[in-house]
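Lab notebook: predicted structure, single chain.

Context: the supervisor wants predicted structures on file for every construct in the current expression panel, including those that have not yet been purified. This is the next one on the list. No modifications to the sequence; it matches the entry in the shared construct table.
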Amino acid sequence: MQKSAAISTPLVSSGLLFQFQFLPQVWLIRRIPEELDSSNKFCTPVAVLSLRCAIYFIYIHHNLSLSSTWFPKRRESSVDASSDHNGSKPLHITAKYGYEDIISALLEKKRSVNSIDSDGCTPLWIALDNNQVKSVQVLLKDFRVNVNFRFNHRTPLGYATQEGNSTISKLLIERNADINIIDNDRLTLLHYAIRKGLLDVVDHLLNRGASVHSKTKRGNTPLHIASMDGGLEIAKLLIDKGADVHVNCENSYKASCKGVPLQLAVKGCHLKMARFLIQKGADINATDPHTHYTIKKGGTLLHWAVREYDLNFQEELIRFLKENGADVNSAAYDGRTPLCLLVKHHGYLDIVRRIPTFATSPHLNSFLDITSSTTHFLTTYRVEKGFIELTKELIDAKSNINALASDETTPFSIAAENGNSILIELLLEQSNLDVSRSYHGKTTLHIASEKGHTDVLKALLADHRCTHYVNMKDSSGKTPVHIAVEYGRTNILSNLLEKTHDVNAVDKNGCTPLWIAIEKNQEKCAQILLEDERVDVKTRHFSQTPLERALKEKNTNISKLIIDRVGDTEIRDEDGLNPLHRAVDEGMLDVIDYLIKKGANIQSKTKNGNTPLHVAARRGNLEVAKFLVNNGADIHARSENYHNCTPLQCAVMCSKLEVAKFLISVGSDINAHYPCAHFSIDRGGTLLHWASRKMDEEELIRFLVENGADVNATEYGGRTPLCLLVKHRGSFAVMRYLIEKGATLNNERGGTPLYWAFSVDYYGHPKAADFLIEMGTDVNSCIDYHGYEWDQMRTALHLARHLSTVNLLIDKGANVNAMDKSLNTPLHLARTPSIAKCLLEHGAKVNASNILGDTPLHFVQNFHTAKILIEKGGNVNASNNEGYTPLHTARNTAIAKLLLDNGAELKAVTKDGKTVVHTSAEVDVFSHSQYLDVPEVVEFFLQKGIDVNVTDNSGNTPLHCCGTSDNIQVAAVLIEKGANTRVLNKSNKTPVECAQFFDSGGGTFCRMLHTIDKIFTAIIDNEGMKRIRRLLREVKTINLTQDDS
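Prediction complete. Output recorded below exactly as produced.
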């Protein structure tokens, strides 16, 4: 079986053909079935099939018949199901090589005739692709073959037709393949067959019902394609089937492919086809919108023919059209006849005479008729080409020299545009010449100025009729002078200035000729204009003078010319800037030097007090700054506006560090006070203060320090740069850098850096605080001194808001019983229970009293903090200098209950005789959000037995106190509990009269009590329920208003 093992591929198997054909036939018949045992793993069914194909040829060679031995039933399924590495089945391979007998044998065994390989092809497609006509014939005999199977969006019939294979196409048509398929360009099989010239296929398709009227995406019918290709016999078939000879194709992107079939045939030089179409009724004089697309459309085929530059073919084509009825006098949409186009495109009168079609036509007799539109056009075209003799002939024949073409041109305007001064002079000699005619708003003067035709312009200006229009404006408002300047026509400009009287005319954009010269950088034109004394150099356009505009456009030479013309180097614009400021702003060193030499003041100031050096510093122009300093500019000059800054400060603010370094090197003071270093409080910091306010200015800070900035300089409020850096959350790296450079941590005034770390936002900046403490801040010094009488002189422990900071301070030796200006200890100001507990654990005095006699328990409004203080021995009945106990200052029910539970005296009174209800009623609830629970506290005290109408030493009840504090919430509770609204105190005032706004009738409390009084009065006086309901609604409204506020 070694030989079998070697036969592993179809190609190898087929290669054995020449060996086998010389072996005895008996050996082949007996041996090969054994060699091709299906159990051999090296012999695939496809390989077997290929070898049998080779044997098939041997049988044919020896005239033997094909035995069914080669396709035993037991192997049918394996052979049919197997495939090679390309997914090809046996039927694919036999179809590819045209083994029709094997195909027939496979089909008899009911093999899958529509199976597809890995490329998506069926056996029929394989046969088509390899042009195996016999294979196709055999396959098509099987009714199971799918003749419409699509591969790459094409059917077999479509593919065969596109490839021009008429034999296979006819076979597929006869097999009822779909003839109405349309591709993405809407081409049918009939279109493709006509394009390939397959006459017999076209005949088959038409007999099968293919439509002769179907159009492609570009609008071509089958007859259009036949006409373009010259397929005369195909055209006959189409017309016999009803094709329309008048249908128009308008969608093609090529002009040669647009029109009716006759026009396409003529354009394709298929004259036999054209003659046939004419015989079938095609209109030879039909207008073609695409005949000549360089001018207005709508000519006939004869118009198209006269544009042909091959004169021999042109004569033949014109004769053909004339013989078949073409109208030689037909006019296009713009009135041009074929003769006009012939002269226009070929230029000599003898061409006309050489073509008998026109020479013998009656149109030639009217060719020079003044009333003929043809004459007008011919005159125009001959001037355009510059044929003097022909023009003279036309003028002598009284042709209309003012003829106006559809594009608004006249012979006069065309001559001006082409620069033909001889024709201009010839036309100007005619008295009936209309020189006022404009071409799109332009006169001939505009045209000559734009094109630069000096001789034409001189001829025009020499005629008094033309000089009348020398100041006429075109559609954009420009005069000929504007046009000459815009295009840089210096010679023309000089000639125009001699004739014009308005050299400062403005166009629709507000520009004068000088302004255009500046914008277009036309230096020579600007020089010519400035030499004219009439040219205005001071009038503003767009809020700028010509000099300002020239500087803005960086036109150095034009700027110098205007400076010489103006003479005044100190002329100011609306912002107070003189030419020197403008030149510095634009960085024009040559102009700056020129101005200074002309006497410009180098110390001149703008409205804002900025000198030229300020401007250079802000722009960061180092070369200009050096030049100004070398010429005496004051480096210490201050602007006179709100900023009041020096040039160095301008440079630093704008991050122009190269200029800043230069100014420092020549003596500018880096520590000069800068009033706008910070705007929130007192002004007067240095540049380092200003930079410290910027979170992302680390590079700038280092630059300033390295160049001598004082790290301990103070602004008017006493703050150092380090204070501002901490306040504005600067980086720790920069903080460390300043400290390493000597920045103090314990400045005397303005608050220390640690103070600002505690003061940042609501929660402070704990990381910065810890950093500053670690860096050596004095933990027992006053950190909040600003130099004001209201300073509290507190230490860091008084202001610490976080437990970690408190622990760090204590570890660094902070005094837990240190006192501020009001004798408050840190425990009085403890923000959280954990901080209070920490302070107590480190020795804080729980009953320490401040200058008012208040203990920490008087201050506390946190239940947990109060509980810690009481547990550590806090006196619940301690009274301050006014006799207030902690219960008098309790502002929430939990703390009040806690105090009472731990022995607080409920009925304790102050020195003024006030109870805990009086002191609660005095609270301004609206100004202190932490006191919103006071009404519940009052209700709690009343439930515990306090009399609602109890009076103090002045006879005031708690309701009187509500009037004083305008505490409407507590008043509501008191009234609900039976408080007397008309009781008098020792000053004979009711609670209403104690109200803050009683005299003006304002105040929520006052209005509410007045309304309640009215309700009582209405009830007593029996004013009725309607009145009472209205008053109750009024009380409700007052309450709602109070809630809203």
